[in-house]
């Protein structure tokens, strides 16, 4: 059974959802591709307490690496990208091209960008740490303003 709750954060209201397999979604409520609870989901903040606790610590600048059980879904390629994203250190950024090289697919930067855009567990799987090859902030489901806030938070507390 999928359980969910909402979290008010410094960047947006977030939907947090998971089941017995782990955390499945963190969705920006104002962003693109936002997730909304399905009819059979149950609101249960207590069930998601550890995710909420770690997210709160992150937004305070006191948590640099999440230790939550994650259960993202996607193609094998998308899951490779999501695993590689989790290796990008707090407070650092990487380009789409560099991320493609890290997964052994140096010519797949566009596909990496598409997989990054489908990240179901924003923030915890830090897709906000991916930038354009020229250092510019590009593409982010929560909006570029949110991406900038997250990167500023991490630079401040590095």
List keywords for this structure.
158 residues, 5 helices, 4-stranded mixed β-sheet, single chain, alpha/beta
Brief synopsis:
This protein is α/β, with parallel strands linked by helices and 158 residues long.
Question: What order do the helices and strands come in, and which of them pair?
Answer:
Layout: E1 3-8, E2 13-19, E3 22-28, E4 42-43, H1 49-59, H2 76-85, E5 94-95, H3 96-102, H4 109-117, E6 130-131, H5 144-156
Parallel strand pairs: 1-4, 5-6
Antiparallel strand pairs: 1-2, 2-3
Describe this structure in words.
- The protein is α/β, with parallel strands linked by helices.
- Helix content is 32%, strand content 16%.
- The strands form two sheets. It has a four-stranded mixed beta sheet, with no helix packed on it. Strands 5-6 form a two-stranded parallel sheet.
- The longest helix is centred in the C-terminal third of the chain and has 13 residues, at 144-156.
- The protein is globular.
- The mean pLDDT is 94.
Number of helices: 5
Low-confidence stretches: none
Radius of gyration computed on alpha carbons: 15 Å
The overall pLDDT average reads: 94
Overall geometry comes to globular
Number of strands: 6
**Which strand order does the major sheet show?**
3-2-1-4
Let me know the largest β-sheet.
Answer: 4 strands, mixed
């Amino acid at each position: 059974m999928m359980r969910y709750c909402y979290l008010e954060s410094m960047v947006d209201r977030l939907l947090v959802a998971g089941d017995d397999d782990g955390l499945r979604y963190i969705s920006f409520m104002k962003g693109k591709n936002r997730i909304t609870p399905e009819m059979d989901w149950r609101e249960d903040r207590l069930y998601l307490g550890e995710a909420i606790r770690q997210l709160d610590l992150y937004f305070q600048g006191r948590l640099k690496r999440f230790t939550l059980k994650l259960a993202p879904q996607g193609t094998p390629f998308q899951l490779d990208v999501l695993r590689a994203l989790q290796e990008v250190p707090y407070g650092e950024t990487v380009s789409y091209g560099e991320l493609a090289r890290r997964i052994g697919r140096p010519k797949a930067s566009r596909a990496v960008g598409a997989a990054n855009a489908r990240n179901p567990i924003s923030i915890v799987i830090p897709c906000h740490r991916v930038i354009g090859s020229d250092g510019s902030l590009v593409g982010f489901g929560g909006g570029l303003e949110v991406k900038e806030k997250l990167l500023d938070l991490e630079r401040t507390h590095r």
